[in-house]
Write a structure and sequence with these properties.
By secondary structure, this protein is an alpha+beta fold. The protein contains eleven helices and eleven strands. A hairpin with a 5-residue loop joins strand 9 and strand 10. About 35% of the residues are buried.
Amino acid sequence: MSSTLVGTSGRVYVRDRLLKAHPSKPELNIYVAHCEGRPFVLKPVSQSIFEHSMLLKTEFPDTWQLRTHVDANEDKLTLFYEYFEYDLLSLVQNNPRLSLKARKFILQEVGQAVECLHAKSWIHLDIKPDNVMVAARESDEGQLEIERVVLSDLDCSLQLEGDKLLNARIGNLMWRSPEGQIGKGIGKPSDVFSYGLLYLYVITGMETLHPDFNELREAGIEPELEILCRLITYFGPVPPELVGHVDDPRWGKILMELSEATADDPDMRFNRWKEEMFPNLDTETKRMISRMTKLNPAERATMSEISKDPWWSRDEDFGYQ
Protein backbone atom coordinates (compact mmCIF):
# COMPACT_ATOMS: atom_id res chain seq x y z
CA MET A 1 0.00 0.00 0.00
CA SER A 2 1.23 3.47 -0.85
CA SER A 3 2.29 5.66 2.07
CA THR A 4 0.05 8.43 0.69
CA LEU A 5 -3.65 8.06 -0.09
CA VAL A 6 -6.24 10.56 -1.30
CA GLY A 7 -9.77 10.34 0.10
CA THR A 8 -12.97 11.04 -1.82
CA SER A 9 -12.93 14.44 -0.11
CA GLY A 10 -9.68 15.28 -1.89
CA ARG A 11 -7.75 15.32 1.38
CA VAL A 12 -4.31 13.68 1.36
CA TYR A 13 -3.47 11.17 4.11
CA VAL A 14 0.12 10.20 4.88
CA ARG A 15 0.50 6.79 6.46
CA ASP A 16 2.48 6.80 9.70
CA ARG A 17 2.92 4.18 12.45
CA LEU A 18 1.31 0.77 12.77
CA LEU A 19 -1.67 0.85 15.12
CA LYS A 20 -2.90 -2.76 14.97
CA ALA A 21 -1.43 -5.69 13.06
CA HIS A 22 -3.82 -8.16 11.45
CA PRO A 23 -3.10 -11.70 12.76
CA SER A 24 -2.87 -13.28 9.29
CA LYS A 25 -3.25 -10.62 6.58
CA PRO A 26 -0.64 -7.81 6.66
CA GLU A 27 -2.51 -6.01 3.90
CA LEU A 28 -5.28 -5.39 6.47
CA ASN A 29 -2.98 -3.85 9.08
CA ILE A 30 -4.42 -0.68 10.61
CA TYR A 31 -2.29 2.48 10.76
CA VAL A 32 -2.26 5.99 12.11
CA ALA A 33 -2.21 8.49 9.25
CA HIS A 34 -1.90 12.26 9.24
CA CYS A 35 -3.79 14.82 7.22
CA GLU A 36 -3.34 18.58 7.62
CA GLY A 37 -1.54 18.03 10.91
CA ARG A 38 -4.28 15.85 12.44
CA PRO A 39 -4.11 12.12 13.19
CA PHE A 40 -6.58 9.70 11.62
CA VAL A 41 -6.99 5.94 11.58
CA LEU A 42 -6.29 4.32 8.21
CA LYS A 43 -8.13 1.00 7.88
CA PRO A 44 -7.93 -1.23 4.78
CA VAL A 45 -11.00 -3.49 4.52
CA SER A 46 -12.58 -6.15 2.33
CA GLN A 47 -15.05 -5.25 -0.41
CA SER A 48 -17.99 -6.43 1.72
CA ILE A 49 -16.93 -4.38 4.75
CA PHE A 50 -16.35 -1.34 2.54
CA GLU A 51 -19.88 -1.61 1.15
CA HIS A 52 -21.27 -2.26 4.63
CA SER A 53 -19.54 0.89 5.93
CA MET A 54 -20.97 2.95 3.08
CA LEU A 55 -24.46 1.73 4.00
CA LEU A 56 -23.93 2.62 7.66
CA LYS A 57 -22.73 6.09 6.70
CA THR A 58 -25.94 6.56 4.71
CA GLU A 59 -28.12 5.18 7.51
CA PHE A 60 -26.50 7.23 10.29
CA PRO A 61 -25.04 10.38 8.71
CA ASP A 62 -25.40 12.62 11.74
CA THR A 63 -25.15 10.31 14.75
CA TRP A 64 -22.45 11.94 16.88
CA GLN A 65 -22.02 8.90 19.12
CA LEU A 66 -21.38 6.36 16.32
CA ARG A 67 -17.90 6.13 14.86
CA THR A 68 -18.49 5.91 11.13
CA HIS A 69 -15.72 6.72 8.65
CA VAL A 70 -15.00 10.35 7.77
CA ASP A 71 -13.37 9.65 4.40
CA ALA A 72 -12.61 6.76 2.05
CA ASN A 73 -10.54 5.61 -0.91
CA GLU A 74 -12.59 3.19 -3.01
CA ASP A 75 -9.74 2.06 -5.28
CA LYS A 76 -7.70 0.87 -2.29
CA LEU A 77 -10.75 -0.19 -0.22
CA THR A 78 -9.54 2.00 2.63
CA LEU A 79 -11.55 3.85 5.26
CA PHE A 80 -10.40 6.79 7.36
CA TYR A 81 -11.68 7.36 10.89
CA GLU A 82 -11.20 10.00 13.54
CA TYR A 83 -8.36 9.12 15.88
CA PHE A 84 -9.11 8.78 19.60
CA GLU A 85 -6.45 8.53 22.26
CA TYR A 86 -8.38 6.28 24.63
CA ASP A 87 -10.47 3.15 24.48
CA LEU A 88 -12.92 2.71 27.34
CA LEU A 89 -11.40 -0.53 28.64
CA SER A 90 -7.98 0.98 29.33
CA LEU A 91 -9.37 4.38 30.34
CA VAL A 92 -11.37 2.85 33.20
CA GLN A 93 -8.53 0.51 34.17
CA ASN A 94 -5.97 3.31 34.32
CA ASN A 95 -8.18 5.93 35.99
CA PRO A 96 -9.68 4.41 39.15
CA ARG A 97 -10.46 7.92 40.44
CA LEU A 98 -12.58 8.77 37.41
CA SER A 99 -15.57 10.68 38.73
CA LEU A 100 -19.06 9.20 38.82
CA LYS A 101 -20.19 12.17 36.74
CA ALA A 102 -17.72 11.21 33.99
CA ARG A 103 -18.71 7.54 34.16
CA LYS A 104 -22.38 8.42 33.78
CA PHE A 105 -21.69 10.69 30.83
CA ILE A 106 -19.77 7.91 29.08
CA LEU A 107 -22.60 5.44 29.68
CA GLN A 108 -25.21 7.87 28.48
CA GLU A 109 -23.37 8.53 25.23
CA VAL A 110 -22.88 4.82 24.53
CA GLY A 111 -26.53 4.20 25.39
CA GLN A 112 -27.65 6.86 22.91
CA ALA A 113 -25.50 5.24 20.21
CA VAL A 114 -27.13 1.84 20.79
CA GLU A 115 -30.57 3.45 20.94
CA CYS A 116 -29.97 5.09 17.55
CA LEU A 117 -28.98 1.75 16.05
CA HIS A 118 -32.03 -0.01 17.49
CA ALA A 119 -34.39 2.73 16.29
CA LYS A 120 -33.58 1.65 12.72
CA SER A 121 -33.59 -2.09 13.55
CA TRP A 122 -29.79 -2.37 13.56
CA ILE A 123 -27.92 -4.36 16.21
CA HIS A 124 -24.24 -3.88 17.04
CA LEU A 125 -23.40 -7.44 18.17
CA ASP A 126 -20.03 -6.58 19.74
CA ILE A 127 -20.66 -4.03 22.48
CA LYS A 128 -17.63 -4.05 24.79
CA PRO A 129 -15.39 -1.43 26.44
CA ASP A 130 -12.58 -1.69 23.90
CA ASN A 131 -15.10 -0.87 21.15
CA VAL A 132 -15.87 2.46 22.80
CA MET A 133 -13.48 5.29 21.97
CA VAL A 134 -13.04 8.34 24.18
CA ALA A 135 -11.59 11.82 23.75
CA ALA A 136 -10.56 13.36 27.06
CA ARG A 137 -8.24 15.94 28.57
CA GLU A 138 -6.80 16.55 31.99
CA SER A 139 -8.17 19.56 33.86
CA ASP A 140 -6.08 22.03 35.84
CA GLU A 141 -7.13 20.11 38.95
CA GLY A 142 -5.77 16.85 37.53
CA GLN A 143 -9.21 15.37 36.81
CA LEU A 144 -9.87 13.61 33.52
CA GLU A 145 -12.61 15.49 31.65
CA ILE A 146 -14.50 13.54 29.00
CA GLU A 147 -15.02 15.46 25.77
CA ARG A 148 -16.47 12.87 23.38
CA VAL A 149 -17.54 9.22 23.41
CA VAL A 150 -18.26 7.05 20.36
CA LEU A 151 -19.30 3.45 19.82
CA SER A 152 -16.96 1.97 17.21
CA ASP A 153 -16.29 -1.25 15.28
CA LEU A 154 -19.57 -1.54 13.41
CA ASP A 155 -18.22 -4.22 11.06
CA CYS A 156 -20.35 -6.97 12.65
CA SER A 157 -23.51 -4.89 12.91
CA LEU A 158 -26.56 -5.90 10.92
CA GLN A 159 -30.10 -4.78 10.24
CA LEU A 160 -32.79 -7.16 11.42
CA GLU A 161 -35.59 -8.16 9.08
CA GLY A 162 -38.92 -7.95 10.87
CA ASP A 163 -39.06 -10.38 13.80
CA LYS A 164 -36.27 -12.57 12.44
CA LEU A 165 -33.44 -13.17 14.94
CA LEU A 166 -29.80 -14.09 14.36
CA ASN A 167 -28.49 -17.57 15.12
CA ALA A 168 -24.70 -17.19 15.31
CA ARG A 169 -21.98 -16.61 17.89
CA ILE A 170 -20.65 -13.13 17.19
CA GLY A 171 -18.69 -10.71 19.36
CA ASN A 172 -16.43 -11.00 22.37
CA LEU A 173 -17.47 -13.87 24.63
CA MET A 174 -16.93 -11.91 27.88
CA TRP A 175 -19.54 -9.33 26.93
CA ARG A 176 -22.16 -11.49 25.21
CA SER A 177 -25.67 -12.20 26.45
CA PRO A 178 -26.65 -15.75 27.50
CA GLU A 179 -28.28 -16.34 24.12
CA GLY A 180 -25.19 -14.79 22.53
CA GLN A 181 -22.96 -17.40 24.20
CA ILE A 182 -25.18 -20.09 22.71
CA GLY A 183 -25.63 -18.36 19.34
CA LYS A 184 -29.42 -18.66 19.26
CA GLY A 185 -32.12 -16.00 19.06
CA ILE A 186 -29.95 -12.87 19.04
CA GLY A 187 -31.66 -9.50 18.67
CA LYS A 188 -31.93 -6.06 20.25
CA PRO A 189 -32.25 -7.49 23.81
CA SER A 190 -28.87 -9.16 23.30
CA ASP A 191 -27.28 -5.74 22.74
CA VAL A 192 -29.08 -4.49 25.85
CA PHE A 193 -27.55 -7.27 27.95
CA SER A 194 -24.05 -6.50 26.62
CA TYR A 195 -24.60 -2.83 27.38
CA GLY A 196 -25.65 -3.83 30.90
CA LEU A 197 -22.35 -5.68 31.39
CA LEU A 198 -20.44 -2.68 30.03
CA TYR A 199 -22.45 -0.48 32.38
CA LEU A 200 -21.44 -2.65 35.35
CA TYR A 201 -17.78 -2.41 34.35
CA VAL A 202 -17.78 1.36 33.86
CA ILE A 203 -19.60 2.07 37.12
CA THR A 204 -17.54 -0.27 39.33
CA GLY A 205 -14.27 -0.43 37.40
CA MET A 206 -14.23 -4.20 37.91
CA GLU A 207 -14.14 -6.98 35.29
CA THR A 208 -16.38 -9.56 36.92
CA LEU A 209 -16.49 -11.93 33.95
CA HIS A 210 -12.78 -12.19 33.13
CA PRO A 211 -11.67 -15.82 33.55
CA ASP A 212 -8.14 -17.21 33.44
CA PHE A 213 -8.16 -18.56 29.90
CA ASN A 214 -4.97 -20.58 30.44
CA GLU A 215 -6.55 -22.38 33.37
CA LEU A 216 -9.68 -23.08 31.33
CA ARG A 217 -7.59 -24.45 28.48
CA GLU A 218 -5.63 -26.73 30.80
CA ALA A 219 -8.86 -27.96 32.40
CA GLY A 220 -10.48 -28.55 29.01
CA ILE A 221 -13.34 -26.15 29.76
CA GLU A 222 -14.98 -24.20 26.94
CA PRO A 223 -14.66 -20.45 27.68
CA GLU A 224 -18.23 -19.88 26.44
CA LEU A 225 -19.51 -22.42 28.95
CA GLU A 226 -17.57 -20.79 31.80
CA ILE A 227 -18.92 -17.32 30.99
CA LEU A 228 -22.44 -18.71 30.63
CA CYS A 229 -22.11 -20.35 34.04
CA ARG A 230 -21.02 -17.04 35.58
CA LEU A 231 -23.94 -15.19 34.00
CA ILE A 232 -26.36 -17.74 35.42
CA THR A 233 -24.63 -17.61 38.81
CA TYR A 234 -24.95 -13.82 38.98
CA PHE A 235 -28.28 -13.21 37.27
CA GLY A 236 -30.05 -16.60 37.59
CA PRO A 237 -31.86 -18.82 38.05
CA VAL A 238 -32.59 -19.72 34.44
CA PRO A 239 -36.23 -18.96 33.55
CA PRO A 240 -38.08 -21.38 31.26
CA GLU A 241 -38.56 -18.50 28.82
CA LEU A 242 -34.80 -18.45 28.06
CA VAL A 243 -34.86 -22.18 27.34
CA GLY A 244 -37.79 -21.63 25.00
CA HIS A 245 -36.09 -18.64 23.39
CA VAL A 246 -32.91 -20.51 22.38
CA ASP A 247 -35.12 -23.39 21.19
CA ASP A 248 -32.38 -26.02 21.24
CA PRO A 249 -32.81 -29.27 23.24
CA ARG A 250 -29.09 -29.71 23.94
CA TRP A 251 -28.58 -26.14 25.10
CA GLY A 252 -31.84 -26.18 27.01
CA LYS A 253 -30.55 -29.13 29.02
CA ILE A 254 -27.20 -27.39 29.62
CA LEU A 255 -28.94 -24.21 30.79
CA MET A 256 -31.06 -26.08 33.33
CA GLU A 257 -28.08 -28.10 34.58
CA LEU A 258 -26.06 -24.92 35.09
CA SER A 259 -29.00 -23.29 36.84
CA GLU A 260 -29.31 -26.22 39.26
CA ALA A 261 -25.55 -26.31 39.86
CA THR A 262 -25.45 -22.62 40.83
CA ALA A 263 -28.59 -22.62 42.98
CA ASP A 264 -26.70 -23.59 46.14
CA ASP A 265 -24.70 -20.36 46.24
CA PRO A 266 -27.26 -17.53 46.54
CA ASP A 267 -24.66 -15.12 47.94
CA MET A 268 -23.15 -14.92 44.45
CA ARG A 269 -26.37 -13.46 43.03
CA PHE A 270 -26.09 -9.91 41.73
CA ASN A 271 -28.82 -8.70 44.09
CA ARG A 272 -26.55 -9.63 47.02
CA TRP A 273 -23.55 -7.64 45.79
CA LYS A 274 -22.47 -4.86 48.16
CA GLU A 275 -21.10 -1.41 47.45
CA GLU A 276 -18.24 -2.13 49.86
CA MET A 277 -16.91 -4.64 47.32
CA PHE A 278 -18.15 -3.00 44.11
CA PRO A 279 -17.65 0.80 44.04
CA ASN A 280 -20.69 2.95 43.17
CA LEU A 281 -22.99 -0.09 43.14
CA ASP A 282 -25.75 1.28 45.35
CA THR A 283 -29.36 0.07 45.38
CA GLU A 284 -30.56 2.31 42.56
CA THR A 285 -27.62 1.41 40.33
CA LYS A 286 -28.25 -2.30 40.91
CA ARG A 287 -31.90 -1.75 40.00
CA MET A 288 -30.86 -0.08 36.77
CA ILE A 289 -28.40 -2.83 35.80
CA SER A 290 -30.95 -5.51 36.68
CA ARG A 291 -33.33 -4.04 34.09
CA MET A 292 -30.79 -4.88 31.39
CA THR A 293 -29.46 -8.23 32.62
CA LYS A 294 -32.60 -10.33 32.89
CA LEU A 295 -31.85 -13.82 31.60
CA ASN A 296 -35.17 -13.81 29.73
CA PRO A 297 -34.58 -11.52 26.70
CA ALA A 298 -38.27 -10.52 26.59
CA GLU A 299 -38.04 -9.07 30.13
CA ARG A 300 -35.09 -6.77 29.45
CA ALA A 301 -35.77 -3.07 29.17
CA THR A 302 -35.36 -1.50 25.74
CA MET A 303 -32.65 1.08 25.15
CA SER A 304 -35.37 3.72 24.84
CA GLU A 305 -36.68 2.77 28.28
CA ILE A 306 -33.18 2.78 29.75
CA SER A 307 -32.50 6.28 28.40
CA LYS A 308 -35.60 7.56 30.23
CA ASP A 309 -34.80 5.94 33.58
CA PRO A 310 -34.69 8.42 36.50
CA TRP A 311 -31.27 7.04 37.47
CA TRP A 312 -29.63 9.41 35.00
CA SER A 313 -30.90 12.58 36.70
CA ARG A 314 -30.94 11.63 40.37
CA ASP A 315 -27.62 13.36 41.13
CA GLU A 316 -27.89 17.14 41.14
CA ASP A 317 -24.36 17.63 39.84
CA PHE A 318 -24.99 15.53 36.74
CA GLY A 319 -25.85 18.05 34.07
CA TYR A 320 -25.58 16.14 30.81
CA GLN A 321 -29.21 15.17 30.33
